Amino acid sequence: MExxxxxxxxxxxxxxxxxxxxxSENSFIENLKNRFDHNEIYTYIGxxxxxxxxxxxxxxxxxxxxxxxxxxxxxxxxxxxxxLADEAYRSLRHQDKDQCxxxxxxxxxGKTEASKFVMSYVAAVCGxxxxxxxxxxxxxxxxxxxxxxxxxxxVRNDNSSRFGKYMDIExxxxxxxxxxxxxNYLLEKSRVVKQPRGERNFHIFYQLLSGASEDTLKKxxxxxxxxxxxxxxxxSATVNGLDDAAxxxxxxxxxxxxxxxxxxxxxxxxxxxxxxxxxxIEFKPESRVxxxxxSRVKDKNDLKEMCELLGIEQSVLExxxxxxxxxxxxxxxxxxxxxxQAYYARDALAKNLYSxxxxxxxNRINESIKAQTKSRKxxxxxxxxxxxxxFEDNSFEQFIINYCNEKLQQIxxxxxxxxxxxxxxxxxxxxxxxxYFNNAIICDLIENNKNGILAMLxxxxxxxxxxxxxxxxxxxxxxxxxxxxxESRLSKNSKFLTDHSLPHNCFRIxxxxxxxxxxxxxFVDKNNDLLYRxxxxxxxxxxxxLIKLLxxxxxxxxxxxxxxxxxxxxxxxxVGTLMKNLLTKNPNYIRCIKPNxxxxxxxxxxxxxxxxxxxxxxxxxxxxxxxxxxxxxPYEPCLERYKMLCKQTWPHWRGPVREGVEVLLKDMQVPxxxxxxxxxxxxxxxxxxxxxxxxxxxxxLEDLAALIQKIYRGWKCxxxxxxxxxxxxxxxxxxxxxxxxxxxxxxxxxxxxxxSFIRGWKARKILRELKYxxxxxxxxxxxxxxxxxxxxxxxxxxxxxxxRRKNAIAVIWAYWLGLKVRRExxxxxxxNAGKKIYDFTIQKIMQKYFLDLKKTMTSMxxxxxxxxxxxxxxxxxxxxxxxxxxxxxxCKKYRSQFTEEKKATYDEKLxxxxxxxxxxxxxxxxxxxxxxxxxxxxxxxxxYQKLNSLVDDKVLLADVVSKINRANGKRAPRLFLLTKxxxxxxxxxxxxxxxxxxxxxxxxxxxxxxxxGFFALKLKEGATSAAKGDFLLSSxxxxxxxxxxxxxxxxxxxxxxxxxxxxxxxxxxxxxxxxCVKFIQGSPKNGNGVACKRKNxxxxxxxxx
Length: 1105
Ligand SMILES: Nc1ncnc2c1ncn2[C@@H]1O[C@H](COP(=O)(O)OP(=O)(O)O)[C@@H](O)[C@H]1O
Ligand SMILES: [Mg+2]
Hints:
It contains 32 helices and 31 strands. It is of the alpha+beta class. The strands form 8 sheets. The chain has an 8-stranded mixed β-sheet with strand order 23-22-21-20-26-25-24-27. The N and C termini lie far apart (159 Å).
């Protein structure tokens, strides 16, 4: 049973009071002092932690310390609050038990600090992650906000909690925080309007004024000077070591982290400012006719500013400070308020405003930090309630606070002293009773429903008639006089009649932690906690949304004539629920002790400590612990938890559970004195035994986990292997198929190659054989030919001889001829083949030639001269011939399109060409000219009508020509008409016929070879018309005229053709003279025109350019 523990090693004094020897109050205190002097502020009594306030910061809350205590057994390291926190968190996580951490002690003993250490430790060791960290941060940051609004400096503590706080931190099954719920208990709101000497109002007022920016203060209409505000006592406005301005920044930052919106923060600060303003409103009396004084607001500036801040109509609030409406049975009565009542109303409003704001803050924080899931949660509750308080002047608040502490002490006593001892007896374990003081009697004095102080107070408050604090005290004096723990001067108990320490207006209660003197003044009012309806209605009318929300009873539609429950009643009820809640959880105690009253380090005031040790019942606690057992558990869960440690109980124990546990412990060789068997539970004396079991269980769990892991891994590997194997088979099958395919293809390829080689070889062999056979045949033929030759020659010789002898030449001749014919035939056979190939080739070439020609054929225009080049030389003739044929053909085609008219025209043109082409230089000019014939338009022109009528035939040609004067060669214009029968020359102007010559009279026409229009019309000698001689005329249309003349002349069958002479020298008969007309190439000086000159009788010279 070797569990390593350092509890006794290098320890200052004794870490666990249970081990203190000898045990006496002196040695107890001595041990505490010894440890305190060495900065060992934590000491155990079993699992309870005693915490001494060091009043100085110690280096024992570092991250390293957190790591040191994390997952360690409670007794393994020196006592620390972290050990308790770790124990609580672990049993929450592992044993699924809801936990609560109860921190008790006097005001200033270090409860709030302890609660923060616990929370920060849990935050440090529980899960991490973005979401979890946010939750943690919000939970932790709710503290500065609540402390700013709910804490204040008191004479006992500079940062005293003026409200009770219980926080449930919720975890999921893994131990990660999910969120939290905060419950608050009765804020000491009287502090808002009045603070005892040496104390301050709530921190937030000072923080706001010191820390807010000028801008914010201006918005809130505040002044930085504390002295400007009636509600802020001046004598201790600043606290040593407290930086209000810095705290303000911390608070604002914390509010932001917790999740307050910017406008919410602003609203909250506005309400705080409004409370300060409210305190500055003062009243003065104003006499009324009926003799009563009525209060009036003195200086309305603060009232105005406050109303502006909250959006309240000033007149409404002002009226509420002067009048009060009382409603009774449907009737409304308005009474005036005097100055004192007005002040009372003002303060009541301020207190209510502030305390409601505080409750709203708590709710708002809860909204932010509440767990998001609905799944089952594990809970760790941390209770940090105001500590037991004894002031010089104790009032209703202290009474309530101390009552709460009484209740907590009850829980402690119930669970650690009474319940434990009773359990030993119940379970039949040998036990000698240990005496202790049970404060149930004090609780009863306060909370008894029939005659408890709170019940009396309520009764008094609800009683009709005049009720004052004195009447209440009277009542107490009569009802509680006999009570052991109640003391009063007026009680019938004569004992206190002469006790001058007990004033008349006070009563005293002997609390478990000492006697406290309560001044009865204010009890009734504070319990009533009345706010005039006019005020709550005024607040409800505000446009400020938050303030409206805080005073729902001000809603005129919801007027409730029933009295609200009293403050005492509410508190009692909420404490009752809290206690019930705590009892469902596994408690962990931190008992805080204050070493001195001076808030100073290093001072250990023995009497003060001794007093606390006594009333906290710590000595009794140690005694019970020493005699008793550290741990107990019903047999069944115990067996369930540890059964894996023993072979007989693992995995199932069939017998009774108690026997199972016995077997188990025996097997584990736990010494007999370490445990006892109760009726239903096993009791284990020393925590070390439990740790030993837990350690073994842990090891065993590790082994089991390894086993599970092993089996799981084996299974996983096997399934994976099987899967791999299956996959491998599939892959292999595919691969084999592929490989076989490849192989087959290779073989096939090779077979083909081999086959082709073999076939080649076979073919070559056959070829060789065939060739050989052929050669053989050839050889045979040759041989046989030779042979036949020889035979024939021999035969011939023989025949020759025979013919010589027998006239057989004819036979030899016939043989020879036969041979010759055969040979010839052979030759022809070969030649024929060649010819066939030749024919075929030629045929192919011709085919190709014609097809190509077809593709490259030229256009159908007769004047197109182009023609594809010839492809083969041997086709030269054909090619030319084809070209000629094609041309003729396309000409024919062209001609076939002609009309008769056009045909005639072309006939004429053809005739002209036959006559003049290459003979006369003028001819080319005429080719392009159309032969119009009637240039004068004889029929249409009226000028020539007469002339036309003279000419009885159709005019074939009519034009103006020049007649050459025979004498001088000058020209004169004449009309020249040609009909079928004759030609006529007429005067151009008059149209008078000068000469009409029948065509048969015309013998010939002479023209030059030159480029001139001269022509001579020669007449037959002896003709009647030839009297004047031949005509020498000139016309540009010579070609047309002559052609027409020639054709017309030829048309008549009876006549010979008119002869056309083309020569540069011809004779013309002028009357009887023959004149030679000679054409010469004209010199350039003659210009372009054709000049005609009579040289002499015989010569007419025409010079042509
Ligand atoms: N563990 C501690 N270490 C250092 N100072 C402490 C410790 N506990 C308490 N104090 C000091 O004592 C003061 C009062 O403690 P607090 O927890 O507010 O008392 P309580 O809540 O019991 O009234 C704290 O402001 C702090 O200065
Ligand atoms: Mg506190």
